[in-house]
Amino acid sequence: MNALRKTRFRSILSTFAFVLALTSFSGLQADVSPSPEQAVAPVIVTATGPVQGVREGTLRVFKGIPYAGPPIGEARWQPPRPARDWSDVRKTTEFGPACVAPTRRFTTIYTTDIAPFSEDCLTLNVWSPADAKNAPVFFWIHGGALTNGSSKEAMYDGTRLAQTGMVVVTINYRLGVFGFLAHPELSAESPLGISGNYGLLDQIAALRWVQANIEAFGGNPSNVTIAGESAGGLSVMFLLASPEARGTFSKAIAESAYMVSMQELKEEHHGTPSAETAGERLAAALNMPDIAAMRSMDAQALADGAAAARFLPMGTVDGKILPRQLVDVFDRGEQAPVPILTGFNSGEIRSLTVLAPPPPASAEEYESTIRDRYLDLADEFLRLYPSTNMQESIYATTRDALYGWTSERLVRKQTELGVPSFLYLFDHGYPAADEAGLHAHHASELPYVFGNLDRTPPKWPKIPDTAEEKRFSAAMVGYWSSFARDGHPTAEGEPDWPAYGHNRAYMLLGKNPQPSIHLFPGMYELNEAVVCRRRANGQIPWHWNVGLVAPPMPTGDLEPCR
User: Fold this and answer.
1) Could you tell me the pTM of the whole model?
2) Could you say which of 166, 229, 261, 411 has the lowest number of CB atoms within 10 Å?
3) What dotted CATH number matches 49-335?
4) 367 is an active site residue
5) Which residues pair with 225 in a beta bridge?
């Protein structure tokens, strides 16, 4: 890659557009207008007051239930506070506002309208079978790069999953600068001496709401599965790693999660400034003298200003909520010892092309660059990602570094704890997606998981209304719901899904589900070696900086990484 192209690509990566590229959705609001099949649902008494939703067929549906108080004014950048009690019956028939996010600058296949937005957004939604009693609970965390998204997105409608006998809960949580700002003044305010991770604390508060209230909706608080995709999958890993979340869930599903390096609260590590330093730099960029001034800013202006200043929301290693880097938590076996179902999509980067550098002018330049970057690992890299089809190799390089390695690492580490763990590769295509070059793209499994094939965003490749697609979705619904029920994914009429175990088994979700073993041989080992060397070096982050844009491989004492 010539110097100009390198500079241009690094400039692209440095822009905040990268953050938005990791999103699942900007959201599509589900239709909340009453239908002939809707009727008033019975009143449910929660710990904060009575709520009344609607009956939709065999389900009871409640939308916009507050699980925490409004994080506005002095409560901006504070841990979530209890929701205010109410005495009158609260109508819960419409979704709550989406949490404030940066103004959209461009459109993608994920883009739709989820207005209105508000800081007063800490609400959740419940779909419950009318006769539910002691039912498993499916707790969904939306994606969106920790920057945007909402529980009102139409593909997250819980109807089909709830029809399997589960209670489905979807949540909002603080995003972007509101959810993940750290700053020395905020740390000084905290009894624990920490700041950041407010969006994660919101998720934990919602899980505690489930523990306190879900039995009234027919759910079993002892059988809760946390689940999410992309930034939602990252959040699942945060919850697995956080001592504060321990005991609030019993299983986990992480779709297209990414175990990247994180900022640490007070010190620079792995080539990343401290979270407090990043907060101070943002305040300076906004010309705000202190946190009091930032709390007085208009919410939308703050969100847009943070985006313009390229503030990158991410979990912070603070020693309390997130005790250490995710890789270290899982290496030490300190994560929650619960069964996990996890995996990724074969075409992740086809819809996230901003994460992939352009191909160089020739195969010789590609190979020369890789050898300069990967040194003794170059031969294995070029075996896995050859120059014969540079574009496909570049897509696969970034896919595997972010999502493939993470997925296999999760099942390996949970298997080491002695809990059943299940891996998948989603490789399902259909004509509109394949013709658009988006075969099995990032998040393309979601309409099938939720059984909402007809509720995709406007620019999403249209899924055909065929028996084949409906059967495939029924298989996905079956596998996900049965795992939430008892920890073992099964689907009627489909093959059994073997645990990862010693055979490194996985489920290939292609045209039809097909069990297999040893996914992409060598992929995990190469990426593990790269991350190990960067961790040992201490000056290099690990994320999408791989392949042609990788820094030179660290040398020196490599014994810990052999």
Assistant:
1) 0.94
2) 261
3) 3.40.50.1820
4) no
5) 138, 251
